[in-house]
């Protein structure tokens, strides 16, 4: 399973990269705004800075909601760096744009997916990644992991190569459960990824090993 970090924060991206387990980055307009990245030139430069920090795919989202605008923006984003993946919302023109970019060999991430039917459309349009938002479904008392399971079953039935990118991951158990179901990728905050390190028995065991070593080597 691939690990993507869901942030536009360069320090956090660097920390995850240095851990050695990072496969890519996802961003969205809210995450860019949170880092105070505004204005077209600054936004484009920030995407390049992110690409230069990591080895994998970097999703950059279009703002346009009409087909022509998405194509214009997506082409500009794709030209920035070979690691850029054009992120498109799952709306009618987003699906049309996804097919357009697929035919041109440009990678896509279809985002804001909340149903199995939407994920089926994204696969048929040839999306590289489909992003079901599991945390936001959990927020409204709907089982986000169940959606991942449904999409896995549908994609396996037909051999669709679109990768299931479980998004809106909030904590470590989302990651573990996505791995059990067979999501291809998760994207979440650094806290969820780093949280996988934690176990009190590891800390206790290490303290004991070090104490025993000290006793015999004074
Ligand atoms: C997906 O790529 C989105 O950026 C993201 O995962 C949304 O997560 P949130 O629901 O925590 O905002």
From TrEMBL:
Q: Where is the active site?
A: 87 (schiff-base intermediate with substrate)
Q: Which GO terms describe its biological process?
A: carbohydrate metabolic process; ketone catabolic process; pentose-phosphate shunt
Keyword Kinase part of the UniProt annotation: no
Describe the reaction catalysed, as an equation. Answer: D-sedoheptulose 7-phosphate + D-glyceraldehyde 3-phosphate = D-erythrose 4-phosphate + beta-D-fructose 6-phosphate
- State the compartments where it is located: Cytoplasm
Among the GO molecular function terms of this UniProt record, one is:
transaldolase activity
Pathway involvement of the protein, from the record? Carbohydrate degradation; pentose phosphate pathway; D-glyceraldehyde 3-phosphate and beta-D-fructose 6-phosphate from D-ribose 5-phosphate and D-xylulose 5-phosphate (non-oxidative stage): step 2/3
TM helices/strands, residue ranges: none
Pfam families registered for this protein in UniProt: TAL_FSA (PF00923)
Q: Identify the keywords attached in UniProt to this record, alphabetized.
A: Cytoplasm, Pentose shunt, Schiff base, Transferase
Give the matching InterPro entries.
Aldolase_TIM (IPR013785), TAL/FSA (IPR001585), Transaldolase_3B (IPR022999), Transaldolase_3B/F6P_aldolase (IPR004731), Transaldolase_AS (IPR018225), TSA/FSA_arc/bac (IPR033919)
Under which EC number(s) is this enzyme classified? 2.2.1.2
Q: Which GO terms describe its cellular component?
A: cytoplasm
Which HAMAP family does the UniProt record give? Transaldolase_3b
* Family of the protein in this entry: Belongs to the transaldolase family. Type 3B subfamily.
Q: What the protein does?
A: Transaldolase is important for the balance of metabolites in the pentose-phosphate pathway.
Please give the name of this protein. Answer: Probable transaldolase
Gene behind this protein:
tal
